[in-house]
TrEMBL record, chains A, B:
Keyword Oxidoreductase: yes
Domain spans labelled Isopropylmalate dehydrogenase-like: 2-326
Keywords, in A-Z order: Oxidoreductase
Organism per entry: Vogesella margarita
Record keyword Membrane present: no
PROSITE patterns in alphabetical order: IDH_IMDH (PS00470)
Domain of life: Bacteria
Transmembrane feature ranges: none
Name under which the protein is recorded: Isocitrate/isopropylmalate family dehydrogenase
Sequence similarity: Belongs to the isocitrate and isopropylmalate dehydrogenases family.
Length: 331, 331
């Protein structure tokens, strides 16, 4: 078993090594392959995702991607390494669960998962501009829509879930969002035991804010999934604990949802929970190690329930101390 | 003074006449011109926005648009009448305030306003599909971006507000969303007394959910404004009280944010607050009647503070009874 570890920039360099330390306890034989990506890499090598990193990621199959800084204004030659990596590795689905974790100020009874299409929509990067008028292409294909829907329904079924809600804005975009919705409904027909419904994305944002407990699996095109998963994170304890897994048939990328957080970087106080729970997703859905995944999740839960937390959650633990506490609770 | 009244479908037909009854008390000489639009209109006349309605709206300048039903699946010849009306009347900005109203379960201390670009972005309706691949055009122009930014900053200044936050996703769409952001920043330079900052739209959704009190004016391209204004409504007491004004130089459309609500239509219990507060926006920003606007807003606030509310807010008042109570409190 191999894991390609990309710490990236800022707090990525703090949470990733600590999370990997915990993972090693669960998988002592795990081989770690370190690789570079991000803003510092761009400044040194002229690319934010070097070919060597891509090759290492491909070879390992499993990746932990920390966080990267990105320029506020366009910089020639710079492309988002995570968006590129998702596409290059064929990670077509992005799983983003939101849970009521203890000690995070999360509302009770939330257990939802957003499954976000990860390769197309407005993320195809096809833009044009003459300086006064700019256009971007939103592309939706039946193949990618079916594929991510298939993943969502299979995850629902395997996870003992009951309902998939398709998010779209087909009242304004009947052809693109309509295609996404229709492809997902076609796939739904193969899962008669999972209920399916749909919501306009604006209504979904409202309902999610009013009653996140009312959702089970939410299936969304790329951009709506991006917005709604950050929103959902607000009800699950914030970005410090928001985990994700980019899943394909050739590779999977565990990725904390947070960014590189330059404001707190370098102080050793970043929250490692998002990285730990992303690794738990990798254990369960990529390495097929549900028992190890549950052990890791339980240990994180117990640590939080015992009132141990980093400053973003009102605690005083450092990143390392939190991970020590998790290790002490791994049984 | 003339008002073109378009009740539309469902509860639009219930809240609009009642809200107009209240408005008449404030403007006894107001001339009402009734016009048709919506799904029933489409079924009868083959168009959801008849030419006569558009002409009446143009002639009056001021419009109250209730709510319309729309088909879940594409229907040949059907186009959203409100999207069309916004464009045809040149209502380039959509103001959507969220306030902490009494008796609505709203969080304390919220007083934000979303200013949404209202004519372009993915709403241009340029889609293509071969059945397996569909594309939609997202179009952003400097002219429209500047124009809506101008409105946002002017409203901020005139309303004694302090900060405008530009929402975008320029890390993924540097040319289109970058143009929106840059045009807005250019306009900001003309308003040195108003602070300006920016947020990625996903981060904005998260922060809005965590602390809506932290926002003042939010300036957004069309689609992000659509999603985030529904979201903001969740913290201001829900869609029953969410008001909006579509504003241009030739016309303004007061528009409750809610839909036609077929589930409760016909029972006379729909919440008229969204329509009443939309009319208050029309009074203040179109008819330049700030005193009348404030009287109407005060009367609505007092009614709610007195515990009078429709069932969506946990009360027992009918639409008509609520408006009676508002009339009794207009001083
Ligand atoms: C950093 C950015 C490119 C990324 C995205 O938009 O997908 C992030 O917001 C996320 O959700 O992982
Ligand atoms: C009904 C729909 C066309 C409309 C929109 O998307 O603008 C609505 O959601 C709104 O926010 O006014």
């Amino acid at each position: 078993m191999k894991l390609c570890v990309i710490s990236g920039d800022g707090i990525g360099r703090e949470v990733v090594p600590q999370a990997v330390r915990v993972l090693r306890r669960l998988l002592p034989a795990l081989q770690i392959v370190e690789a570079e990506a991000g803003w510092d890499t761009f400044r040194q090598q002229g690319t934010a995702l070097p070919a060597a990193t891509l090759a290492a990621a491909r070879e390992c199959g499993a990746v932990l991607f920390g966080a990267v800084s990105s320029p506020a204004y366009p910089v020639a030659g710079y492309r988002s390494p995570i968006v590129q990596l998702r596409r290059e590795l064929g990670c077509h689905a992005n799983m983003r669960p939101t849970l009521s974790l203890p000690g995070c100020g999360a509302a009770e009874g939330i257990d939802l998962m957003i499954v976000r299409e990860n390769t197309e929509d407005l993320y195809v990067g096809e833009e044009q501009s003459d300086g006064d008028t700019a256009t971007a292409i939103k592309r939706i294909t039946r193949v990618a829509s079916r594929r991510v829907a298939e993943t969502a329904f299979r995850l629902a079924q395997d996870g003992g879930r009951h309902r998939v809600t398709i998010m779209h804005k087909a009242n304004i975009m009947p052809l693109t969002d309509g295609l996404f919705r229709d492809a997902a409904r076609d796939v739904a027909a193969d899962y008669p035991q999972i209920a399916v419904d749909e919501l306009l994305v604006d209504t979904a944002a409202l309902k999610l804010a009013q009653a996140p407990q009312g959702f089970d699996v939410l299936l969304a095109p790329n951009l709506y999934g991006d917005i709604l998963s950050d929103l959902a994170a607000a009800f699950g304890g914030g970005l410090g604990v928001a985990a994700s897994l980019n899943l394909g048939s050739e590779a999977a990328i565990a990725e904390p949802v947070h960014g590189s957080a330059p404001d707190i970087a370098g102080r050793g106080i970043a929250n490692p929970v998002a990285s730990l729970l992303s690794l738990a997703l990798l254990l369960r859905h990529w390495w097929a190690q549900p028992t190890l995944a549950a052990r890791l999740e339980q240990a994180v839960r117990r640590t939080l329930a015992d009132g141990i937390a980093t400053p973003d959650l009102g605690g005083e633990a450092t990143t390392a101390a939190f991970c020590d506490a998790v290790l002490a609770r791994l049984d």
